[in-house]
Amino acid sequence: MYSRIIGTGKYLPDRVLSNLDLEKTLDTSDEWIQSRTGIKRRHIAAENQATSDLAYEAARVAIDDAGLSPHDIDLILVGTATPDLIFPNVACLVQKKLGIKGMAAFSLEAACSGFVYALNIADHFIRSGQASRALVIGAECMSRIVDWTDRETCVLFGDGAGAVVLEKGDKPGIIGSKLAADGSRGDLLRASTGITDTENEGKSPTIQMKGNEVFKLAVKTLGSIVDEILEENQLTKDAIDWLVPHQANFRIIQATARRLDMPMERVVLTVQDHGNTSAASVPMALDTAIRDGRIQRGHLLLLEAFGGGFTWGANLVRF
Ligand code: UT7
């Protein structure tokens, strides 16, 4: 038994914040942001939108694309670092919005690697016979945890959601996944405080990042994980049709493509349009390249992500 992707969807909130908009309130420039990151603009959720609203919109599109009704779904998984509430979890909130109940619904925290982690877990549910049709979502409102006075982080992030529907089948599908984490490097990229943080001073959490160190660690860890996942699945670099990377920084993506000897024409790049949307970035990039016709049935895809924790991971997918 395998799982395969039968539908995808994405949702970006209406409000667009461009680099030029940021220039008006911050000591930054469009030139700096574009040359260091590739980002041109990001989308910001409306005041009355929470992560589950974005997730729900992406989910509806993915379920529709799969030709299913919400009632066909028997597992809901959401990767997010910005849940609406501590509980109910975002997957339960999406379940309610979809008007369904009964199936397991849970969220997981692996920051920007959340979707890649969730896809691996959903794949296991399906392979073991515990689910037949899983809704897997990455959704974030990063704008709510950004310090808008910190130019080193606020220019990087945006809001959005991406979703896929996985169905059981007798052919892969998801060929393999590899997940990793190094908790000792948690200080590199973190939310400043939390609910049970013993040093919580009653402040709201904001993103703190040692950008340069994150950059170097991301290039290193992604480089090794792509080699490992190919080796474990007895595939060579040239077998990959599309690299669908976490959209954090154009230069990190370029470094991973170089490691795979892949021309940038075979890399899905969306970071320019929405910045770093954390767990939402991989499923949104996937949906974009499927809808514009670049990714075709039968193509071999390599999905990869890294993020706070430190976490990282990859999925090999026959579309
Ligand atoms: O999903 C995982 C999330 N995180 C990431 O993927 C981030 C990984 N890191 C990066 O993408 C890059 O390290 C950054 C884009 C964050 C920064 O790029 P960099 O090339 O590593 O720049 P830097 O941090 O070395 O800073 C270079 C200069 C500094 O000025 P000085 O000290 O050279 O005078 C910064 O103060 O750029 C300055 N700077 C800015 N200037 C204009 C930092 N942020 C800005 C800004 N606008 N927004």
How would you characterize the largest beta sheet?
5 strands, mixed
* Uncertain parts: none
Tally of DSSP helical segments: 10
In quaternary terms, these chains amount to single chain
Classify the helix fraction into a percent range.
25-40%
- Describe the strand arrangement of the main beta sheet, using strand numbers: 1-7-6-4-5
Shape: globular
Using only C-alpha atoms, the radius of gyration works out to 18 Å
Notable characteristics:
319 residues; alpha/beta; four-stranded mixed sheet; 10 helices; binds oxa(dethia)-CoA
Explain what you see.
- The chain has 319 residues and is an alpha/beta fold.
- Helices cover 32% and strands 26% of the residues.
- The chain is built from 10 helices and 13 strands.
- It has a 5-stranded mixed β-sheet, with helices on both faces. A 4-stranded mixed β-sheet has the order 8-13-12-11, with helices on both faces.
- A hairpin with a 3-residue loop joins strand 12 and strand 13 (311-318).
- It is globular, with a radius of gyration of 18 Å.
- The chain starts with a strand and ends with a strand.
- The mean pLDDT is 97.
